[in-house]
Specification:
mainly alpha; Rna Polymerase Sigma Factor, Chain: A; Arc Repressor Mutant, subunit A; 0% strand; elongated; RNA polymerase sigma factor; transcription regulation; sigma factor; DNA binding
Length: 170
């Protein structure tokens, strides 16, 4: 298969790779990077592709392995990766562009919601958010650890209620 034919076949299949990249990375920019890395690896290793085999499956395998390799590299560097349930999958449309304005509006709403919490709930919540452990918060605020956990739980619940629109956009 010539390079032009290979490129043509990859272009036909590559549109279906973006949703898979989004499911793996949970971030539009990271998904675009993963897709680009995958297509680059596929093109540079096109001599390893056997004619007649499933090109789509080959590309999915490259993408999955690239993601795993990048993930392992980040873990070795002790980079924090958020795997909490707070991440939301955002449907991406092929021809849409992002201008980051929605992110600014969301951050403004989040900051307003956090600032509207009572001080007794906001302080432990923000300390936990900044990386303090429960026992460290309890020591610094001189309150029992159970109280710290309870206040953080209540703060989360109130924020969830105040920011309901972001969890259920339509």
């Amino acid at each position: 298969m010539t390079a032009i034919e290979f490129t043509y076949h990859i272009a036909k299949v590559s549109k279906s790779l973006k949703p898979f990249a989004m499911r793996l990375t949970k971030d539009s920019e990271d998904a675009n990077d993963l897709l680009q890395d995958t297509l680059l690896k596929a093109f540079t290793n096109r001599d390893k592709y056997a004619d007649g085999t499933n090109l789509k499956a080959w590309l999915y395998t490259i993408m999955k392995n690239t993601f795993i390799t990048n993930y392992q590299r980040m873990v070795r560097k002790n980079t924090f990766i958020d795997t909490s349930d707070n991440l939301h999958y955002i449907n991406s449309f092929e021809n849409s562009t992002e201008n980051e304005a929605a992110g600014k509006f969301a951050m403004d709403d989040i900051n307003k919601a956090v600032n509207s919490l009572e001080e007794a709930y906001r302080t432990p919540f923000m300390m936990y958010y900044r990386g303090f452990k429960y026992h460290e918060i309890a020591d610094r605020l001189r309150i029992p650890i159970g109280t710290v956990k309870n206040r953080i739980h209540i703060a989360r619940k109130e924020l969830k209620d105040k920011l309901y629109v972001y969890a259920h956009p339509f």
